[in-house]
Amino acid sequence: MIQVRDLVKRYGDKAALNGVSFGIGAGEVVGLLGLNGAGKSTTMNILTGYLHMDSGSVKVGGFDLLSQPLKAKAQVGYLPEQPAFYGNMRVKEYLNFICDLRGAARTRAARRLHVDDICARVGLEGMQNRLVRNLSKGYRQRVSFAQALAGDPKVLILDEPTVGLDPSQIQDIRALVRNLGKERTVLISSHILSEISELCSRVLVLKEGTLVADDSPRSLAARTRQAHKARLRVQATLEEARAALEQAPGNPKIDSLGTLEEGTTELAFTLDRGLDARVEAFKALAKAGLPLLYTYGAEPSLEDIFLHLVGRAGEEEA
Amino acid sequence: MRAVFKRELRAYFQGALGFVFIAVFYFFTGYYYFTYNLLGGTADFARLFAMLFSIVLFMVPILTMRLMSEDRSARTDQILLTAPVTRAGIVWGKYLAALCVYLLAISGTLVTALVTAAFTPPDWPVYLGNVLGLVLLGGALIAMCMFLSGLTESQVIAALLGFAATLFLFLTDALSTAFREPWLKSALYYLSFSKRYQPFTYGLLELSNTAFFLSIAALFLFLCSLTLEKRQAG
Q1: What ipTM, to 2 d.p.?
Q2: If both were cysteines, with which of A94, A189, A232, B45 could A32 make a disulfide (CB 3.0 to 4.6 Å apart)?
């Protein structure tokens, strides 16, 4: 649905995007991650036709953005980072204007149905006659969402859709994205990595205008998993547990993490790389006859993965 | 283009701008008609239209000040430029909306002609030539001031730039006498809106003057489109 090849964009001497390539299939929900200035918004602005690329090619829905810009843009609904409105318009009037712009639902009856449908999807029922400028931030974000849905675009590009919203509004918007992702291709950027982890089947990570990762959160976790580290809860005293675990191979390092449950000890257990700390801990404790109640493998969060990728890319460049 | 046109036209009348613009034009049209034609007892519209020339020069920047700058400051240009609409469509939509309000504003001259016709038949060809001149003048100025509005995010600065440009056009005749260089004199003479406009007030329809105003409008509409393209280039 989206094909990006060797995308290059420079602002003066600084390369905002430096040969970025990726493809997104129909029905995928893909997250775009990167630190500030990594090129996320530039990528999104180019995909929507707001910015021109210096070189490379972008196809949306099979239409080339340079040679068939109007057809390509008709495939895309865009939620900008900062919602943009004509403040003196009412919600219904604004959505009608966007439908006019996109040539959607041209007859009066079809238009009314379409606008009502969009408003129902984003939770704007009963707000259609309100002035946009008088709405709360959460409702304005919903209006911005609604305009992105005008004309039923096949691709949705959402730039930081939950920024500045309260927790309840964030939950509503995430539920909305989850529903929209069932029938559309969605590219979403966010600083909230748990949000990307929750919503996306695939993650693109940009660093200084270069794509440093393109994979599912699970595969990225596997790449960055630290199997030689584990957290243990053992039904024993610290001394008993330490004595048993010190018998494990791979230079075991044992640190006490205190007690969370009566009669147990919480430990951080680290071995040499190449060994699985959970397996070796189980064997050593079983041999000593000490019950192992929990093992927490060092499953990295998306934050860990992201920082690892960005950090490692930095080391490689250095 | 139709969507942009409809929105811009509605925007003029959702606030006071459209109504005030039209009211001010009607006021000055009525005032000059009363003093020159009714008190003077003449059906000659030349003086009325000559006075309207300066009113147009100073009112058009107010009409156009928000046309492009508002989109930059409110970031609504993102909505327009990411929609399946051409840059020319955006520019033409905005231009035609402003032109429509302008035509409504100068329609007051039609009332004066009809009132005159109740007493004595006016010289209709001369009157129509005057109206055509006023339309062409307004069309060129709207395009020029709309382009200037696209250079800034501030509506106030857009209006000031428009005033500066129209003031320059107002003074080109005086300036042309201040220089000795023949090429500069002829350049200023060529650019003089008032010299181009005057023949219309005599009822003279000259192709060169018509082409001049149309060319100015086309040039600035093209530059307006280029401004949008430059913004897309980042």
Answers
A1: 0.83
A2: A189
* Shortest CA distance from A72: residue in chain B: B84
Tell me how far apart the alpha carbons of residues B227 and B234 are, in angstroms, rounded to a whole number: 11
Residues of B in CB contact (< 8 Å) with A are: 2-4, 6-7, 10-11, 14-15, 74-86, 229, 232-234
- Characterize the bridge pairing of strands A229-234 and A55-60: unpaired
**What residues of chain A, 123 to 182, have a C-beta less than 8 Å from chain B?**
147
Task: Check residue A317 and give its pLDDT.
Answer: 38
Could A101 and B232 be called an inter-chain contact, meaning their C-beta atoms sit closer than 8 Å? no
The whole-angstrom separation of Cα A234 and Cα A58 is: 55
Give the integer Cα–Cα distance in Å for A273 and A231.
16
Which chain B residue's Cα is nearest to A53? B233
Q: Could you give the CA distance from residue B72 to residue B150 in angstroms, rounded to a whole number?
A: 8
Inter-chain contacts counted by CB atoms under 8 A, chains A and B: 70
Residue B233 has its nearest CB partner, among A52, A87, A100, at A52
Q: Report whether pLDDT(B68) > 80.
A: yes
SS3 of A1-37: the string is: CEEEEEEEEEECCEEEEEEEEEEECCCCEEEEEECCC
Q: How far apart are CA A233 and CA B203, in angstroms?
A: 100
Chain B contact for A78 (CB, 8 A cutoff):
yes
Segments in chain A forming alpha helices (H): 40-47, 69-74, 91-102, 108-122, 137-149, 167-180, 193-199, 217-224, 238-245, 277-288, 302-317
A290 and A236 in contact (C-beta within 8 Å)? yes
Count Cα neighbours of B141 within 13 Å in the Cβ-side half-sphere. Answer: 35
- Alpha-carbon gap, residue A59 to B177, rounded angstroms: 59
Of B11, B78, B234, the CB nearest to A86: B11
A22-77 per-position pLDDT tens digit: 999 888 899 998 888 888 889 999 999 999 999 999 999 889 999 999 999 999 99
CA angle at residue A239 from A235 to A245, to 5 degrees?
Answer: 75
Q: Which of A105-119, A302-316, B88-102, B190-204 is predicted least confidently?
A: A302-316
Cα(B110)–Cα(B130) distance, integer angstroms:
11
The structure tokens listed for A180 are 């929209």
Amino acid at A303: E
Q: For residue A305, what are its two tokens? A: 């993965």
Q: Which residue has the tokens 């009525």?
A: B30
Strand A29-34 vs strand A185-189: parallel, antiparallel, or unpaired?
A: parallel
Q: Which residues contact A302 (CB under 8 A, 6 or more apart)?
A: A193, A194, A196, A197, A203, A217, A220
